[in-house]
Amino acid sequence: MGVEGKDKAKALEAGAVALSGQLGRTVARLRKAHNMSLSELSDHSGVAKSIISQIERNETNPTLATIWRLAQALDVAIDRILQASDDEPFIDKSNRGDTPILVSEDGKCRLAIIGWIKTVEWLQWYDFEAEAGGVLASEPHQHGSVECLSVLEGELVVEVAGITDTAKAGDTLRYRCDRPHVIRNMSDKPARATMVCILRAAVME
User: Fold this and answer.
1) CB–CB of 184/135 below 8 Å?
2) Residue 202's pLDDT band (boundaries 50, 70, 90)?
3) Considering the domain 99-204, what is its CATH architecture?
């Protein structure tokens, strides 16, 4: 199961949240670098102090006009406000409540999108959970795609084009996912795994 359609929309929304958080951190860092208080930045930019505070705490999504005013007051280009420096160290955190969850048709399998939104077009990874009897059936991804399923708890069966294999805790299955594929929990206990989907996989070209 790759991030496509409505699922991709959920992933992009998560990316928007992450970008908003980055924006807030950047504004706070630049403000402090200029030794400016919230009140001083408000006076220089014309943006209300309360709004700036909300931006820095990632509690609001500012308009482009607001971002432009802050950039002018901080004497930086607007793209510097929107994008952190490539060589700038960072720690990016996603809260459990902000993590998009995909659910299988039978309601027994859940995929938490834990991958980085910046890689969604070519690399996706998930925390996969399946209740007893759970089945996750996926349509083919683009040609050359490969999926890697590393079982952490329980036992899972993977079927691709009539070929099946079983993985227990500690095992990893790698398989072509550019054709219909199914993951099943055929045991009477829940199972959990990490799933990585590599799109446009050169190894299969």
Assistant:
1) yes
2) very low
3) Sandwich (2.60)
- What DSSP letter does each residue of 97-125 carry, written as one string? GGS-EEE-TTS-EEEEE-S-GGGTTTEEE
For 154-190, write each residue's pLDDT tens digit: 999 999 999 999 999 999 999 999 999 999 999 999 9
DSSP state of 96: G
Q: Exposed/middle/buried for 205, CB within 10 Å: 0-12, 13-18, 19+?
A: exposed
| Contact predicate 24/16, CB 8 Å | no
Domain boundaries, the chain: 5-82, 99-204
Cα gap 171→155, rounded to integer Å:
9
Contact criterion met (CB below 8 Å) for 181 and 163:
no
CATH superfamily entry for domain 5-82: lambda repressor-like DNA-binding domains (1.10.260.40)
What pLDDT sits at residue 14?
53
pLDDT tens figures, 34-90: 888 999 999 999 999 999 999 888 888 888 888 889 988 988 877 777 665 455 566
Q: Is residue 144 within 8 Å of 202, Cβ to Cβ?
A: yes
Q: What is the layout of strands, in order, in the sheet containing 181-184?
A: 135-138, 181-184, 155-160, 163-168
Q: How many alpha carbons fall within 13 Å on the CB side of residue 120?
A: 19
